[in-house]
Amino acid sequence: MVRILNESGHERNRNAGDEAYFAAMVDVFRQTFDNIEIKAFSDRPEHDIKRYDVKTVYSGGTIKRSIRSIIDVYKAIKWCDVYVWGGGQLLRDDTFILATPYRLSRPLLASLMGKPVMAFGVGIGPLEKPPFRLLAKWVFGRFTLITYRDSKTEGILRGLGLKEPLIQKTVDTAFALTPSDEKSIDALLMELGIEDNSRPLIGAAPYGPAFRGKFSGIRNFLPAKIQVDRDLWQKGGKESYGKHVQMLADFYDEIIEKYQARLVLVVQDASSQGLDDKICHDILNHMKNQQQTVILNGDDYPPALLKGLMGRMKVVTGGRMHSLILASGVNTPVMAICYELKIKELAEAIDQHACFIDGYEIKDKSDLVRMFDMIWNSSESIANTLKERNRELLKEVDQNMIRLKKLVERQ
After folding, report:
1. pLDDT tens by residue, 173-229
2. Phi, psi for residue 96 in degrees, rounded to 5
3. Res. 2: pLDDT tops 90
4. Which entry of 29, 70, 181, 377 is 20 to 30 Å from 56 by CA?
5. Is 123 left (phi over 0), alpha (psi -120 to 50) or beta?
6. Alpha carbon of 171 to those of 151, 253, 276: distances in Å?
C-alpha cells in the first residue's frame, strides 16, 4: 500500500483551475500505483470525498484553521509514505505576508519527521523578500525532489542556489486530465440551454483580478478577502478595470455577431481572491448579445467535464491559465490575454506564441479582434499543432510520475 499525502492549491475554495490539476494528479497517481491511498488537505472535505474518493485532512485554507488542526496535520504526515507538495502556484510573497511561511510549514514538518517530500509540478513566485527567500532556500534544501513547470520558477530556484538533481523540469499535470464522455458533455450543454448546435461555441475565461494590482506597505499585511471586501484598489486600478470590462464586452459582441456564435463565460475562480464571477457578470451586463451568452460556474462541475466542454468549442479566450490548459489539452485553439508571467510561459509549453497577447498592452478591442480572426481562420492548423504538442506534454507528465514512483520505491 502506497500512502500519499497531498498539499496543493486545490485546498483553496472554489477555484476550478486548482481542481483541474488536483483531479489529474488523483488520476495519474491511481494509474501508476496498483494499491494506493490518497489523503489531501482540504477546505471542503465532503466535496473532495464525494468528487474524488480521497481521504481528507481538514486544515482549511487559512492559518487560523491550520493551527487548530495541528494534531490532525501531524497524524496525517506520520501516516503517509510520501508528502507531495503541489501542484499549482503554491508559493509567492506578494499577497498576505504570512502566506509564505504558512505554505512552507507543512512540508518542513514532513521533512523533519523523516518523510520524503516531493514538489510536484509547482509554480513559484514572485519570491523577492530576503527573509522569505532565506526561509525557502532552507526548506527547499530539505526536499527530496522538486519538479517545476515553468522557467520563471526555475530562475527562482536556481537563484536560491538549488540545482539538479534536486530540481527537475516538468509540465502542469492538468494536461493529462481525461475529458468526460460525449453523453455527459451533451447533458451539460442541455443544462446550459445550448441544445442548438448550429452556432459555433466560443469560450472565455476572464481574469477577475485584472487591474486590481499588487499592494504594498500596510496593505501587504491584509488578507485578500479584506482587500476585496473593502474595495481596495491601486491608484487608477478601478477606472482601468471598468474600461477593460467594457472593451471585453464590445469584443465579445463583435465576434458573436461576426461568426454567428454563442459565448460561454467560464468562472474559473469564484473565491474572494479570484473575482472571476464578478468580472463575468460585469462583462455580461455591458454586452448587447446577452441572449447568446451564458455564464458557467466552473466549481459546479468536475474538471473532466469542463475539459470535455472545451473540446466542443471553436476557440477559447481569456486570462485564466488552467482554462487555457484544459482547452489546448483537447486541441482547441486558445487566445490568451496575459496578466501573469505564468500565462506567457504557457505559450512556450504549447508552442502558441502568436496566440498570446499582453493584457496591459492592448490598446483597444481591435487588437483582440485581429488576433481572434487570425486564430479562427487558422483553427485547423493550430489544432494539428496542439495535437502533436500534447503527445510530448503527456510524455513529460509520465516522466514526472516515474520520478515519484522511484522515490516511493526507495523508501
Report:
1. 999 999 999 999 999 999 999 987 889 999 999 999 888 755 444 445 566 667 777
2. -60, 135
3. yes
4. 181
5. beta
6. 11, 35, 25
Query: What's the pLDDT tens digit per position in 133-157?
Result: 999 999 999 999 999 999 999 999 9
pTM over 0.90: yes
Which residues, 6 or more positions from 47, have their beta carbon under 8 angstroms from its beta carbon? none
**Domains of the chain with bracketed CATH:** 2-176+392-409 (3.40.50.2000), 182-377 (3.40.50.2000)
Question: How far is CA 159 from each of CA 60, 152, 169, 282, 356, rounded to the nearest angstrom?
Answer: 31, 11, 15, 41, 27
Q: Which residue has the cell 509547482?
A: 122
Question: Which cell is 296 given?
Answer: 458557467
The predicted-structure confidence for 235-257, as pLDDT tens digits, reads as follows: 788 898 999 999 999 999 999 99
| Backbone angles phi and psi of 380, in degrees to 5 | -65, -45
Please give the Cα distance from 152 to 156 (Å, whole number): 6
Rounded-to-integer distance, Cα 302 and Cα 155, Å: 34
Compute the CA torsion angle 319, 93, 297, 196 (nearest 10 deg): 20
SS3 string, the chain, reads CEEEEEECHHHCCCEHHHHHHHHHHHHHHHHHCCCEEEEEECCCHHHHHHHHCCEEECCCCCHHHHHHCHHHHHHHHHHCCEEEECCEEEECCCCCCCHHHHHHHHHHHHHHCCCCEEEEEEEECCCCCHHHHHHHHHHHCCCCEEEECCHHHHHHHHHCCCCCCCEEECCCHHHHCCCCCHHHHHHHHHHCCCCCCCCCEEEEECCCCCCCCCCCHHHHHCCHHHHHHCCCCCCCHHHHHHHHHHHHHHHHHHHHHHHCCEEEEEECECCCCCCHHHHHHHHHHCCCCHHHEEEEEHHHCCHHHHHHHHCCCCEEEECCHHHHHHHHCCCCCEEEEECCHHHHHHHHHHCCHHHEEEHHHCCCHHHHHHHHHHHHHCHHHHHHHHHHHHHHHHHHHHHHHHHHHHHHHCC
